[in-house]
Amino acid sequence: MFINKGAELSRICKERSISIAEYTLEIEQEENGHSREELLLKMQKNLQVMRESAQEALLRPMQSVSGMTGGDAYKLHEYSKRQTLCGELVVLAMARALSCSEVNVAMGKIVAAPTAGPCGVIPGAILTAAEKLQKSDEEIILSLFTASAIGILIAKNATLSGAEGGCQAECGSAAAMAAAAIVEMMGGSPEMALHAAAIALKNILGLVCDPIAGLVESPCAKRNASGAINALISADLAMAGITSIIPFDEMVDAMFSVGRALPCELRETGLGGIAATPTGQTLKKKIFG
Amino acid sequence: MIKYSVFDILGPIMIGPSSSHTAGAARLAKVAKLIALEGRASNEIVVSEVTFYLHGSFATTYQGHGSDRALVAGMLGFDPWDERLKRSFELALTEKLQYSFVAIDLGDVHPNTIKFVIKRSDGVSVVVVGSSIGGGKILITSVDGEELEFSGDFPTLILKHHDRPGIVSKVSALLYDENINIAYMKVFRQSRGEDATMVFETDSMISDEVLEKLQELKRQGFLTSVKRISPIALGA
């Protein structure tokens, strides 16, 4: 069975000199009886859909079904061609994350990663990092197994659901997964990958889930963009040798207890936070009458 | 601790925006259609009309989450990752499928529950109730007013019989002879001696030959109804 704690994962990987991705592939083979090739192929399908959804709304403005949001990925992509403050890498990562989000709310095809709400964080961060680092598809696919491993640990010890843990459990978990994946893609150790994941969780600790009209649109799309950037900076911090003072497992526990302490208004009910603002309420009325 | 596969975390591949309100809704409708048609693949009998009774958060958010289009898509037999899902209203016109949405309070049930009232082209009506329980997973909880429970993840047999000793073993022996491993099995009945429902979820597909043998048991009076449901995958 997949190990229960990050510390054990780090120890096993170190003892056997394997990556988190390799460990995850091994366990998945044992548990579900698929061959390594089958698993890589299945993950390649995820990568394919991630790529398409990260691209689609860059090239043409896409509108959500409710009509509330859309067209921002296109704007950001156009802007990325001019002189920007953060530079092309950061702006592209945000644009790709927004694209996935916009495709999702326009009823397009996405990969839940780890759920539909934050589906842009992992593609935005990983695809952009891989492009800059000139990584092959095989390396990207392996990094997605690293991302899954972090997601499994968070699911086992806390939650990936906004209704249970707020946005920190969705966009935060996605950023932690992406950060660890990028660290392994860059040749960092499993221990460094776990530090990156812990830092990403720390950066977003306490963030509430407060969707306007209860729909996965606003503020979700922009939090996908900031989630992707959270992953990139957490990966860079860890690659510089900076450690998370609070270990990954304790970070996951902290995220879970903060999530449980959030009132239900701030856990995906659309009753608190920005959903409760006058503008949020007006938009809700406009959509649902 | 709960076991997770890598693809529970990265996946499913689905049409947005919500795994429970869109992907789960499409899957629920597709399974409801299979139940209504009793697993028939032929085009002799089709669904001509369906009323979706929406409970809980489905009732309040179904338009914003595209649950309406997803439900119609499922009734047309589309999978949760089929890109035609968004255009299901137009496609329903071509298929001459009539549909309507009604908000309802079904009482103390899962917050994301739908009751399907399905009219077939041969005049038969079938009522299915099911819930979207998160991440695109579903649970069917009632067929034609009889309580039962299955997930649609496995090949499933729904068999009705008069409650008397020996029937369960007759069916399980038949499945054993055909080398079909039973993953889950449950028996539901209203009261002792009345009609009972058996649900078998199996590890391997139930062939036409096995179905025919079960139909034979029905002709012999051991069973009163035989339905075979193919599993509906969560993602592409």
Describe this structure in words.
The complex is a heterodimer of chains A (289) and B (236). Chain A is globular. Chain A has a single domain (21-288), classed as 2-methylcitrate dehydratase PrpD, CATH 1.10.4100. The model of chain A has no long low-confidence stretch (mean pLDDT 96). Chain A is mainly α and 289 residues long. In chain A, α2 (20-32) packs across α7 (137-157) and α10 (190-203) crosses α11. Chain A has helices spanning 6-16, 20-32, 36-59, 72-80, 88-105, 121-133, 137-157, 162-165, 167-185, 190-203, 220-239, 248-261, 278-288, and one strand at residues 109-111. By secondary structure, chain B is of the alpha+beta class. Chain B has two domains: 6-144, 60s Ribosomal Protein L30, Chain: A (2-Layer Sandwich), CATH 3.30.1330; 156-229, Alpha-Beta Plaits (2-Layer Sandwich). In chain B, 28% of the residues lie in helices and 32% in strands. Chain B is built from seven helices and eleven strands. In chain B, the strands form two sheets. A six-stranded mixed sheet of chain B has the order 3-2-4-5-6-7. In chain B, a hairpin with a 2-residue loop joins β6 (137-143) and β7 (146-150). The longest helix of chain B has 18 residues, at 19-36. Chain B is globular and about 50 Å long. The mean pLDDT of chain B is 91. Chain A binds chain B through residues 1-2, 4, 24, 28, 31-32, 39, 42-43, 45-46, 49, 64-66, 103-116, 119, 122, 144-145, 147-149, 151-152, 155-156, 160-161, 177, 213-217, 287-288, and chain B through 1-19, 22-23, 57, 60-61, 63-66, 69, 81, 83, 85-86, 134-136, 235-236. β1 of chain A pairs antiparallel with β1 of chain B, so a sheet runs across the interface.
